[in-house]
Specification:
- This protein is mainly α and 274 residues long.
- It has a domain of 171 residues: MetI-like fold.
- Helices cover 72% and strands 0% of the residues.
- The radius of gyration is 23 Å and the shape is globular.
- The two termini are 42 Å apart.
């Protein structure tokens, strides 16, 4: 006879399995739809599995140079955006957490206030700014405007506030400057937090659609979401290839989560304790 504890664990496992299946269902459907004929993707009645498994959709989309170029440009931009985001937000978080300077409290309130402004509310003004600066149709317009993030600053700052002052004081006694303390003491201890912030920045860039559509018209700089949108508009009937492209687009993100899953869990635990 099962003990109450074992029954409880079994129920939790079943619930977790059901939630996981529901969460993965859209992705599974997209992957499998990539093996269907173009007329079968949205056929009625609905069929989850194809009548005949076709790999042509995946091979054809991989043979499209524009698709591969968009994937490469977007991946490179996402990595650069994440790296710059980590540098800028971590440096600002350290300044607000450990340094003392005039108007520090007022500036921090100003930074935090930006968290409550919807991005859509400043979309037009942001476009006007980058237009006046001559940044349209450049790689910089995709990367620089969103690097600084109040949410990421706040997250990293909360972590830095909980690092013992003794470590910093010992480094100061040894003659280390603020830059050396930041790079040699705080940065090495921040890896789990940096993983959370870095992946968040990466996903924000990878999934962006409205901003690239507004600021980029050069096909050489098309982001992957732009490519998929244009593909859907220009090749309306090629739904199988569209599903295959969407499935392949998710691979870099899935790989990141698999590689850094241990640190993601660790970072989530840290965020829950602060």
């Amino acid at each position: 006879m099962q003990t109450p504890n074992r029954i409880h664990k079994t129920l939790l496992a079943l619930i977790a399995g059901a939630v996981t299946l529901l969460a993965l269902f859209p992705l599974l459907w997209v992957v499998i739809a990539g093996f269907k004929e173009k007329t079968e993707v949205l056929s009625t009645p609905f069929r989850f599995f194809p009548k005949q498994w076709l790999v042509a959709n995946y091979t054809d989309i991989l043979a499209d140079a524009a698709f591969l170029k968009s994937m490469g440009v977007t991946f490179g931009g996402a990595v650069l955006f994440a790296a710059l985001s980590l540098f800028v937000n971590a440096a600002a978080a350290y300044a607000f957490a450990r340094l003392e300077f005039r108007f520090k409290g007022l500036l921090w309130v100003y930074v935090i206030m930006t968290m409550f402004i919807p991005g859509m509310a400043i979309l037009l003004t942001s476009f006007i700014v980058v237009d006046k600066m001559g940044m349209l149709d450049t790689f910089a317009v995709l990367v620089l405007p969103g690097v600084a993030s109040a949410g990421h600053m706040f997250f990293i700052r909360q972590f830095y506030l909980n690092i013992p002052l003794a470590l910093e004081e010992a480094a100061l006694i040894d003659g280390a400057g603020r830059l050396r303390i930041f790079t040699s003491v705080f940065v090495p201890m921040s890896f789990p937090v940096f993983v959370i912030v870095g992946i968040g920045s990466y996903l924000a860039y990878w999934n962006s659609f409205i901003w690239p559509t507004m600021t980029i018209t050069n096909p050489d700089l098309y982001q992957i979401m732009q490519y998929l949108y244009n593909f859907r508009s220009e090749r309306v009937t090629e739904l199988g290839m569209l599903m295959a492209g969407s499935a392949l687009t998710s691979l870099p993100t899935i790989a990141l989560f698999l590689i850094f899953q241990k640190y993601i869990i660790s970072g989530i635990k840290i965020s829950g304790l602060k």
